């Protein structure tokens, strides 16, 4: 059975927002989507680590969304930190599917 973002949303997502990650060999990209009913709407663009300070860019973007609670921002940024740290420690050694297993609440896509 093919894993789609919609399938991941149905099984993994419990909040109003979802962290999306593109898992690549030389970069990891982070974005946040807004979960609306059973659909999603992009909330932020993708920010690429280590090409830029993706965590700070994501934080700055979330700070412009005054309707997002501080608790939600902290949860998303904590998830982003964990994913970035995991990618840094395991780049080239871990597949996207292994990362998805480690972070079931995050939606992954990528080339490996």
From TrEMBL:
What GO MF annotations does this protein's record show?
structural constituent of ribosome
* Taxonomic superkingdom: Bacteria
Q: Which GO terms describe its cellular component?
A: ribonucleoprotein complex; ribosome
Report any Pfam family annotated for this entry: PSRP-3_Ycf65
Q: Which InterPro entries match?
A: PSRP-3/Ycf65_sf, Ribosomal_cS23, Ribosomal_cS23-like
- Family, per the entry? Belongs to the chloroplast-specific ribosomal protein cS23 family.
> What protein name applies here?
Probable small ribosomal subunit protein cS23
List UniProt keywords, sorted A-Z: Ribonucleoprotein, Ribosomal protein
Per UniProt, subunit arrangement is: Part of the 30S ribosomal subunit.
Role? Probably a ribosomal protein or a ribosome-associated protein.
Xref: PANTHER family: 30S RIBOSOMAL PROTEIN 3, CHLOROPLASTIC, OS04G0461100 PROTEIN
Which NCBIfam families does the UniProt record give? PRK02724.1 (NF002740)
- Keyword Oxidoreductase in the entry? The reply is no
What GO biological process terms are annotated to this protein in UniProt? translation
């Amino acid at each position: 059975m093919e894993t789609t973002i919609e399938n991941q949303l149905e099984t993994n997502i419990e909040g109003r927002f979802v962290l999306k990650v593109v898992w690549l060999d030389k970069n990891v990209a982070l974005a946040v989507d807004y979960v609306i009913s059973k659909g999603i709407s992009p909330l932020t663009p993708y920010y690429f680590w280590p090409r830029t300070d993706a965590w700070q860019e994501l934080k700055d973007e979330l700070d412009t969304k005054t309707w997002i609670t501080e608790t939600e921002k902290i949860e998303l940024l904590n998830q982003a930190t964990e994913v970035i740290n995991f990618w840094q420690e395991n780049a080239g050694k871990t597949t996207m599917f292994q990362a998805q297993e480690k972070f079931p609440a995050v939606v992954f896509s990528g080339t490996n």
